[in-house]
Request: fold
Amino acid sequence: MTENENIQELTEQELSEQLDEQHRIRLEKLAELKAGGYDPYTVTKYDVTHRAEDIRNDFDALEGNDVAIAGRITSKRDMGKASFIDIRDGSGRMQVYVRIDDVGEETYKGFKKWDLGDIVGLKGFVFKTKRGEISVHAKEIQLLAKSLLPLPEKWHGLRDKEERYRKRYLDLIANPEIKDTFVTRSRIIREIRAFLDGKGFLEVDTPVLHTLEIGAAARPFKTHHNALDIDMYLRIETELYLKRLIVGGFDKVYEVGRIFRNEGMDSTHNPEFTSIEMYQAYTDYIGMMDLIEELYRTVTVNICGTDTVTYQDKEIAVGKPWQRMTMKDAVKRYAGEDYDSWADDAAARNAAKQKGVEVADNAVKGEVLTALFEEFAEGELIQPTIIYDYPVEVSPLAKRKPSDPAFTERFEYFINGCEFGNAFSELNDPMDQRERFTKQAEEKRKQGANAQVDEDFLTALEYGLPPTGGLGLGLDRFIMLLTNSASIRDVLLFPTMKPLSD
Reply:
């Protein structure tokens, strides 16, 4: 068995003792190096000329030529006066042949004491072994950093997802394929930016710290600013500042923003996540429907090479025209309840009761409709589907429908039974906005929150917000879709985790 396979068979106590012993041994090796006049931690740089991927891709041109590479030792095969090692850099693995006659007896003697996990730099020429493997024949080799703990390659702790999330740095070493998800994440963000920039949108930054706990549904995280001696709140959205910019004369703006919500955690929710919000003057929610469909289609094709992706064993046709239906129609289809048949709020509450859906004793028709939608319809929306015309009670920032003021020009879109984004024809009536803000803040205060009305935003509206379409998409959920990741924690390098107890 290898060192790590032995570890795999141990009990938790034995594992801890074994790791402590290996830590002690490696510390002794480090002390021996320092006593001999070499401290690897004093190395400040190493001039790398090629990565492993470069050598593999350009082998025909590089064969026989000298290269300088660096990386972490992931395996060693000792053959006496010569050895093979594998090193891994940011682009992948490269086999290296190290021979005593080439690097010198003293260097080779020290090299044989190096451990898996140590970081090395080496210079040598590119060749192909008799078995046909592209490799580097080392002529010089140097220890650049000492690893004081064994690699987790087959350490049983890295099979546990909780441990992998907590120690992502070890996860990336033990499971290098995980890196592909985060490379794709970066590419997706670039593609979204390129798409919006190409449409004439301007990327902007807005404050993360807010002075008000606004009356939105999400709960904020609270902090304190010592110099100003005021409480402040981490933002739960970027919307109100972006719309201020539309008032100020920018016609198209967007922000890739980190958002913080003091709420529950599950496979699609993390307390901090990334949203992309975009606002366009002189359009409405229909315009935003067309925009989001085109954005998803373009990014998906550019990332995946196709407009149909597999997500959790389901084929998701991102490229086909998305189904569009009102919330009323969705509830009628999936819950068998007709909003227009409810004579009043009491009739709506009774309909919910008959369906086994709990609503507040004072719930109004719009709130009941939303509850029935969430219970019966949302989970049925597997293919990309736009649900539009939301009740005004659950849409404090959306413009009322002129033909039916009980509803707003708002939509959300759903994939695989999960909401991926939210959009409005933005409310630009200052009086209506004040009334809704006030009502929302009152309801939040009843729940114990210190919710306030954003008077500055209302002042901005009084200067005039042009007809505007706005949309926010959950970036992490989009990345989950395109990388076939089951949990949001799989697409966050460092998801929020409860600290381990002592």
Observations:
- Residues 333 and 377 are 8 Å apart (CA to CA).
